Amino acid sequence: MPAISVFGAQWGDEGKGKIIDRMSREADMVVRYQGGANAGHTVVVRGEKFVLHLVPSGVLHPGKINVIANGVAVDPLVLLQEIEGLRARGVDLGPHSLRLSGGAHVILDVHKRIDLLAERWRGEGRIGTTGRGIGPCYADKAARTGIRVADWLDLELFRTRLQASLAEKNALLERVHGEAPIRIEELMDRHAAARQALAPFVVDTGAEVRAAWRARKTILFEGAQGVMLDLDHGTYPYVTSSSTGTGGIASGVGFPPSWIDRSYGISKAYCTRVGEGPFPTEDDGADGERIREVGQEYGATTGRPRRCGWFDAVAVRYALELNGATGWMVTNLDVLSAFDEIKVATSYDVPARGLKQRSDYPGSVVTLDQVVPNYESHPGWHDDLTATRRYEDLPRRARDYVEWLERLVGFPVVLLSVGPERDQVIPRMAL
Ligand code: IMP
Known about the structure:
It contains twelve helices and 20 strands. It is α/β, with parallel strands linked by helices. It has three domains: 160 residues, Adenylosuccinate Synthetase, subunit A, domain 1 (Adenylosuccinate Synthetase, Chain A, domain 1), CATH 3.40.440.10; 94 residues, Adenylosuccinate Synthetase, subunit A, domain 2 (Orthogonal Bundle); 162 residues, Adenylosuccinate Synthetase, subunit A, domain 3 (Adenylosuccinate Synthetase, Chain A, domain 3, Alpha-Beta Complex), CATH 3.90.170.10. It has a ten-stranded mixed β-sheet with strand order 9-7-5-2-10-1-11-15-19-20, with helices on both faces. Strands 14, 16, 17 and 18 form a four-stranded mixed β-sheet that branches. The protein has a two-stranded antiparallel sheet with strand order 3-4.
């Protein structure tokens, strides 16, 4: 049975939560392998909205195993709050349905404080992070000063590692930023209840996921953020601090890459970005504003208005190729019903390099703010698509738009989404 990767093919917020929730019906296990509570995966079930930050998006289907693997940066206080919030809303959530890796790194208050202070320090060069402590936690992991969930569960080990970590962090807080230091006992006290509550969830998740694969279970790997925010392959330094695509699964779970059968990218029918950094097709005029209002483009985690613009075929083609996509899914197609004319960036010019009409992504040789996109237009359709469930029932122009994107990008569109509800999808090909 398959192991399937689902990843964001733009700058995050492509609607992955809804797609994973839907695909989970057929899955046994849903696995988060990177990122942390910077993610906000939204699932709408019969008008009721759930925003998931750390808990995998399979949780709204009973009987599934949801895994937070070692590559995730886990804020235990946020995780506990999320578990309790979901339970209060009737979601059956316990160690039988949720597993937490002992190898995942722990986000502490100090990481969140440093995240915010570093942003202030960067001034004009700020990244626009979510403030969830993601960068500082992964920095500690790479510097080998991080604290893993297994260390955090062992009171003495937690204290020892925290002492070592805070010696350096408090010097930074006090001497560089002129801020009050973090008191170790206070921090440990704040974590006492969470440690007790989360201990039963902690297992060797890599071993469990591999065992599930051997038992021929269906496993979904849920990417967070998007390829254009990938630490290595995105618009560095305006990226998140993890490997957001299929490549992140091997190390973020402990799952052999050769065991992954299929991989699907998700993109919107237009494009959005939150935070700073280059965004070639951004439209800061009336069209961008209209996309924002019709698509309700406000961050699920921070509430920030998203930057909006047209579909960028160069970037999506790159994202799909990089991840060896089997196919891709196009979300928010219904939002484009608001437009007479729909634009798509089909190539880039790079004036500084004398390059014209290039359809290959130049991100590792120039920064994306040096590219000028070339647009082509497609006539709008104006029909309401939100109740359409079959591809052949879409208006001709909407189908032409989808098939045009497919040709530009060079990968098959397997599914379309036409609204936030679980059932507002148009399957096009078998997954
Ligand atoms: P961080 O992940 O909080 O460090 O933020 C780094 C960059 O990634 C910022 O531009 C954030 O806005 C962006 N980012 C992080 N998580 C998400 C997400 O889930 N959706 C969209 N953008 C995100």
